[in-house]
Write a structure and sequence with these properties.
The chain has two helices and no strands. The chain is mostly helical and about 90 residues long. It has a domain at about 25-65. The longest helix is centred in the first third of the chain and has 33 residues, at about 5-35.
Length: about 90
């Protein structure tokens, strides 16, 4: 337990920050889901802004988007020493 009042205040501040991050994460995920499902067709909003908030909130918790499976692909090495391309 934090016996020092400054440590207690800092601990409460961290807790409040986590609650705010969770609220932004839930709010942005809910808005994107509603938008993509078309539940409220009259609701017009910028999905890009909400998606950026969702990405930022997820990144603050260390959640990252997985690559599309190209992570294990070896880079293509081009060897041009034996080619005559462009030489007249």
């Amino acid at each position: 337990m934090a016996t020092n009042p400054e440590e207690q205040h800092e601990k409460e501040g961290i807790c409040v920050a986590d609650v705010v991050k969770c609220a932004v994460l839930a709010w942005s995920a809910t808005l994107l889901t509603i938008s993509y499902l078309g539940i409220y067709p009259a609701m017009k909003m910028d999905n890009t802004f909400v998606a950026s908030l969702l990405t930022g909130a997820m990144a603050s918790f260390g959640i990252e988007r997985k690559a599309n499976g190209n992570g294990n692909k070896k880079p293509t090495i081009v060897d041009n020493k034996d080619t005559k391309v462009g030489i007249k």
